[in-house]
Amino acid sequence: SDVSLSYTAAAGSFHIAYGNDAILYGVTWASTSGKYRGGIEYDGVGADDRIDCGNTGSLDITTNTITLMAWVKRATTGLHEIIAKINATASAGYSLEFRTDNKIEFAKRGIVGIISNSTITDTNWHHIAGVADSAGMYIYIDGVQDGSGTNTANILTATGNLIIGRLDTSTPQDYFSGFIDEVAVYSTALSSSEVL
User: What is the DSSP letter of 113?
Assistant: First the structure.
């Protein structure tokens, strides 16, 4: 079944489909600064900055089909984690991030990561998506496919929580700095026409 994550219009409120609520740590609700209305602002400083979506069964996607996507606006270029559900050593689970070279990486942790062809060197709003299906893996930037791979393995089970805005290893890292809005996680693979 699909899992969608959406902000509500109230400060500090974040909702996951199926009645699961997330907890906001060190981030700010910016009521007029999102891509669409409000969004979440990350200052990129300190290990507390994150949205913790928990580890419910609906988020524990272990098939070979998944879609991760969000609107993001970085305050600076470089390494920024968008969405990740991993274990303490980042050797299982799934993630979507900006790399240090400003390319996008979409990963089945412990198996394979694919990298975008393009670099994003500005700090404008961009829609970033990673999709995996029975034929392979794909990255989309602003609705256009921009990288792919042929891996069809199932995602390895990760014991950690789904985190938005940092890589939650045993020593948290890759803190996001800027704004994240309209996050969505699906246990199905959206088509190219559905991504944006």
Answer: E
Any idea what DSSP says for residue 193? T
Integer Cα distance of 62 and 153 in angstroms: 10
Which residues are bridge partners to 173 per DSSP? 167
**Position 81, amino acid:** E
Quote the Cα angle for 140-143-148, to 5°: 25
Q: What is the distance between the alpha carbons of residues 58 and 72, in angstroms, rounded to a whole number?
A: 24
Write out pLDDT tens, residues 25-82.
888 888 778 888 788 899 887 667 888 888 887 888 999 999 999 999 999 999 999 9
Do the Cβ atoms of 130 and 67 come closer than 8 Å?
yes
Rounded Cα distance between 158 and 77, Å, is 28
With contact defined as beta carbons under 8 Å apart, do 5 and 21 qualify?
Answer: no
**CA 178 vs CA 28, 41, 49, 63: distances in Å:** 10, 6, 11, 31
Closest by CA to 178, choosing from 120, 91, 139, is: 120
